[in-house]
Design goal:
This protein is mainly α and 139 residues long. The chain has 1 helix and no strands.
Length: 139
C-alpha cells in the first residue's frame, strides 16, 4: 500500500509536471507569437519611419519649389511692371514723335509760305526795277 501511495503520488506529480510542461509549451508558443507580432510591428514602424522621412523630404522639396516659384513670380511681376513703364514711355515717345511730325509739317508749310513770299518780293523788286527806270526816263 505504501508503494501504491507513492506510485499515486508519483503519477500525480507526473501529471502535474506534464501539465506544467504543457503550460510551458503553450506559453512558449504564445511568446513566439508575441515575438512574431513585435517583429512585424518593428517592421511596420521602420516602414513608417522611412515613409515619414520620404514625406518630410518631399515636403522640403515642395517648399523649395514653392520658394523658387515665388521668386520667379516676383521677378515676372517686376518685369511686367518694367514692361508697363516701357510701354508708357513708348506711348509718350510716340506722342512726342507725332507732335514732332506735326511741327515738321507746320515748318514745311511755313517754309513754303516764306518761299512764296520771297518769290513775290523778287517779282515786286523786278517790277519796281522796271518801273523806276521808266519813271526816270519820264523826268
Amino acid at each position: 500500500e505504501f508503494q501504491c501511495s507513492k506510485a499515486k503520488d508519483l503519477e500525480e506529480q507526473l501529471r502535474d509536471l506534464e501539465s506544467v510542461c504543457n503550460k510551458n509549451t503553450d506559453l512558449e508558443s504564445q511568446l513566439e507569437n508575441q515575438r512574431e507580432k513585435v517583429s512585424q510591428y518593428l517592421i511596420r514602424i521602420k516602414n513608417l519611419e522611412e515613409n515619414l522621412a520620404e514625406t518630410v523630404s518631399t515636403k522640403q522639396n515642395l517648399l523649395e519649389e514653392k520658394q523658387c516659384f515665388t521668386e520667379r513670380i516676383t521677378e515676372l511681376e517686376s518685369q511686367c511692371s518694367k514692361e508697363k513703364d516701357l510701354e508708357e514711355q513708348l506711348r509718350d515717345l510716340e506722342s512726342v514723335c507725332n507732335k514732332n511730325t506735326d511741327l515738321e509739317s507746320q515748318l514745311e508749310n511755313q517754309r513754303e509760305k516764306v518761299s512764296q513770299y520771297l518769290i513775290r518780293i523778287k517779282n515786286l523788286e523786278e517790277n519796281l526795277a522796271e518801273t523806276v527806270p521808266t519813271k526816270q526816263n519820264l523826268l
